[in-house]
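Researcher: Go.
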Amino acid sequence: MTTTPAGLAIPATVPASALADAEQCDVLVVGFGISGGCAALEAARAGARVVLLERAAVHGGTSSMSGGHFYLGGGTAVQRATGHEDSVEAMIAYLEASTKAPDKEKIRAYAESSVEHFDWLESLGFEFERSYFPGKAVIQPGTEGLMFTGNEKVWPYRDEIPPAPRGHKVPVPGDTEGTRIVMDLLRDRVLEAGVDVRFETGATNLCVDEDGDVVGLAWRSFERTGLIRSDAVVIAAGGFVMNADMVARYTPALGEKLFTLGSTYDDGLGIRLGESVGAALEHMEEPFITAPFYPPSSLVKGLIVNQEGKRFVAEDSYHARTSHQVLQQPGATAYLIADSAHMEEQRMPLVPLKDGYETIEEMEEGLGLPAGSLTATMARYNEYAARGEDPDLHKHPDWLAPQTEGPWGSTTSRSASRSTPASPSAAWPPTSTDGYAAPTAR
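Model: Structure:
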């Protein structure tokens, strides 16, 4: 008899008959991250009596760990203020072209509502700075309100669709926790709207009637338990990155990570509650895995090679797309190489640097690459970069520059489960978080 791992266990449902004496509300929301908070706020503004349950002692969830980046377009106030033209149709075309299995109806709804979404966010009580960051970064290092964040300027998308920057960042410097100001404002608006927020209270089971419709849920707060009847139940309870059993089943690549972005409560319970009433799961196998090697932007002008000394991805790609490609290489290993003119000190704390070599031949030997492989790759890259061309991977001319000024430095990206090579190259660890869409397609 096969025993189901604890982390994959599906909670039992509770019959509606158990709700005879239960309290009642119109809308019941599980999880006070940004999705749950927005759902609760809009339901309350529409006149519903809303109860919002959150297992943690504070609002925010994993949302508050993020940098405060919102992918918005179609002509937002920041795009207009900084002189960047964009349209709903261009946004739709890019998202459809860069998504592995695009949901066209959802993409159109998202793009058509994007400017309204932007205005709604600012109505919470903050403003995106009307400024533009022109460099290459995972997220704006300062408080700039706009940047190119995906593959809008990467081939082949730039040739098919007019590129436009759509990465809107809240006015908080740094790479993480920018969303916290949004969550704090969202909390204030939620409370003003009269939402009944209950912290340290988590859903445990869904209640269903004879037809299988969800009509409420069971909750627990420390040793206390109870039931709530509701006309609508919204589950916005986070991902599963902290559930080893779910990670092993759906995204085993995350088991090789060095660092995980998530909170204690990212245990997949919300997903399993959905499963308990027959919900269909989608994109469970699509983790977000990244190993950003920039900023500074100058590093993007270098080249990335695999253990065979060959380039395999345009270096100006979205960082998660690059990382996805690294995982497909022999040994899930790659090397970023730049010369002294471009090897500024790396500023992403997840990507420690660096080894230096006086010649490309020494680098080949030090990295254990096939003799002559890197020399040939570098020569070809430099030849075409001097002309502003990249016939092999079509890197944008903005990021092409010959790497001819020695000594040369290298950074190594490899799967955490693999042994360290003879070379003293520093590890370039991937950061990972689970998600419901495939950012690697961008």
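Model: The domain at 6-65+179-285 is CATH 3.50.50.60 (FAD/NAD(P)-binding domain).
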